[in-house]
Amino acid sequence: AVIEAIMARRSIRQYHATPVGRDTLMQIMTCGINAANGQNKQSWEVRVVDNPEVMAEINAVIAEAYGEKAEMAVGCFRGAPVMVFIARDLAYDFSAYDCGLLAENIMLSAQSLGVGSICLGSPVRIINDNEACAPVLERLGFSEGYEFCLCVGLGYADEAPEAKPRMKEKVRFVE
Question: Would the CA dihedral through 86, 140, 91, 35 be positive or negative?
Fold first, then answer.
């Protein structure tokens, strides 16, 4: 089942408007926080936004901050009805890796439950690099010493993208 989920998961960029239930989201988040992590530091914080009004508020702040480029900036969420915002503990050198493992567990568990996903870095740049987006970070309420570093969009897929070819020559056994 794990291999099936890994091989079937694709980055979804089109979603149905159907909300993902909180019970399903909690199951996905429980799988996420059970990811491997260095020294069991659990060096992440997670904020889940599944309320369309809250996402509209976040999009409004981003749109105002980016003016003429608002459409590009607001589009960074790819229309996912649920956004998972992940922050890393700056006091731990390996926290970025831990957050990546957390995100992968979120995406694979979502896949196994019939929920599509996409891992996003552009919202991080858009929100972190523009002081006018500070209200978004305030709204997310990450603890002091944590830095927003990754987003995962979740929702029911309205597309079924084919797998892109993988270059097996990237893997070599060292003799």
Answer: negative
First to last CA, the chain: 32
Contact 106, 113 (CB under 8 A): no
DSSP assignment letter at 37: -
Please state the pTM of the whole predicted model: 0.94
146 neighbors 87 (Cβ within 8 angstroms): yes
Q: What is the DSSP letter of 68?
A: G
Identify the residue whose tokens are 């309205």: 158
Cβ partners under 8 Å of residue 36, min gap 6: 98, 101
Q: List, in order, residues 6 or more apart from 14 with CB less than 8 Å away.
A: 78, 79, 157, 158, 159
134 sits in which H/E element? helix 134-140
Does residue 87 carry a pLDDT above 90?
A: yes
* pLDDT digits 0-9 by tens, 32-61: 999 999 999 999 999 999 999 999 999 999
Measured CA to CA, the distance from residue 111 to residue 138 in angstroms comes to 30
The partner residues of 32 in beta bridges, in order of sequence, read none
SS3 73: helix
**Mean pLDDT, the chain, integer:** 94
